[in-house]
Design brief:
Blueprint: E1 6-9, H1 17-27, E2 32-35, H2 53-62, E3 71-73, H3 85-104, E4 109-112, E5 115-116, H4 122-140, E6 146-150, E7 158-159, H5 163-172, E8 181-186, H6 187-193, H7 200-210, E9 216-221, E10 223-224, E11 235-236, H8 245-253, E12 262-264, H9 275-284, H10 291-296
Parallel strand pairs: 1-2, 1-12, 2-3, 3-4, 4-6, 6-8, 8-9, 9-12
Antiparallel strand pairs: 5-7, 10-11
Helix pairs in contact: 1-2, 3-4, 4-5
Bound molecules: fe (iii) ion (2 copies) and zinc ion.
Length: 298
């Protein structure tokens, strides 16, 4: 692929649902995007047949969106790390239905927060996640979807905050489902977890040594409001945070990452989406310190 795969989180809500998501992405000049199949905070879902999926895919094709690089994000309510049997079962069932929904949208990549250990400790939490994922895969059998475990900031009792923890989870998954696993690297999260984003060679070499670069499927491109190792997870617009513009765009243009969709999850500015302007700025490869003012005054 010669052009950079660059997009953002977009909404997926009525009346246009998926068609609306595609329209939104195209309006920002994107060739990939990420969506939730419904509100991330609850499990109410619009039936697939009402989501204007076919219309969305048709428009995406016409608009030059790379269909097999579109990303879906699983809801935050899913926590496979929880030892509580009811919550664990709820998370498994919800993940299963979201995987099938993701397939219904024709989407191959589903980003999942690995989970929280809710004060049971890392080892118990990771074992729960492994058991949960294996059971989900066993129940669903043949799947086109790749579950991309997201690298986390280390807020609260989050798991998946080091490449080693992600690798531990992957190693626990049955051989026959290994092809359904990938990783989403979030630049804000790894900064907050203590990785120096600017040193892309060190980040990618470590990733390759521990997990394997071929498992990297998605990049969340975000600046961070907080310094290295802060364990906070507060996203900032590109170039306005502690990571900085020059460090972040290395991940957009690195030859090792050409096939990987880069998705912005940066905050709105005075209720206005920043993505069109941020993408233009990234394509120009030059930081614009007045970008926030420009967006705010639109
Ligand atoms: Fe996420
Ligand atoms: Fe993210
Ligand atoms: Zn985040």
């Amino acid at each position: 692929m010669d052009k950079i795969l660059l997009g953002s989180h977009v909404s997926m809500s009525g009346p246009d649902y998926y068609l609306g998501s595609v329209k939104e992405a195209l309006s920002y000049g994107e060739n990939v995007f990420m969506f939730y199949t419904g509100a991330p905070q609850n499990n109410k879902r619009t039936p697939l047949e009402n989501c204007k999926i076919k219309e969305g895919i048709e428009l995406a094709q016409k608009g030059g969106i790379i269909l097999d690089k579109i990303v879906c994000h699983a809801p935050y309510m899913i926590n496979l790390g929880n030892s509580d049997p009811d919550k664990f079962k709820f998370s498994k069932d919800f993940l299963k239905s979201e995987i099938l929904r993701c397939e219904g949208f024709g989407c191959n990549l589903l980003v999942l927060h690995p989970g929280l250990h809710v004060h049971m400790g890392e080892e118990i939490g990771i074992n729960n996640i492994i058991r949960g994922l294996n059971e989900v895969f066993n129940d669903l059998k043949e799947l086109n979807v790749t579950i991309c475990l997201e690298t986390m900031a280390g807020k609260g009792t989050e798991l998946g905050i080091t490449f080693e923890q992600i690798k531990k989870i992957i190693d626990g998954i049955d051989e026959k489902y290994q092809n359904n696993l990938g990783v989403c690297l979030d630049t804000c999260h790894i900064n907050d977890a203590g990785y120096i984003v600017d040193d892309i060679d060190e980040v990618l070499n470590r990733f390759d040594d521990i997990i394997g670069l071929k498992l990297l499927k998605v990049i969340h491109l975000n600046d961070s409001k907080n310094p290295l190792g802060a364990h906070k997870d507060r996203h900032e617009n590109i170039g306005f945070g502690e990571i900085g513009f020059d460090s972040l765009i290395k991940y957009v243009y690195d030859s090792r990452l050409v096939d990987i969709p880069k998705i912005l999850e940066t905050p709105y500015i005075e209720n206005k989406p920043p993505y069109k302007e941020e993408i233009e700025m990234i394509k120009k490869k030059e930081f614009n310190p007045s970008l926030k003012d420009i967006i705010a005054s639109k």
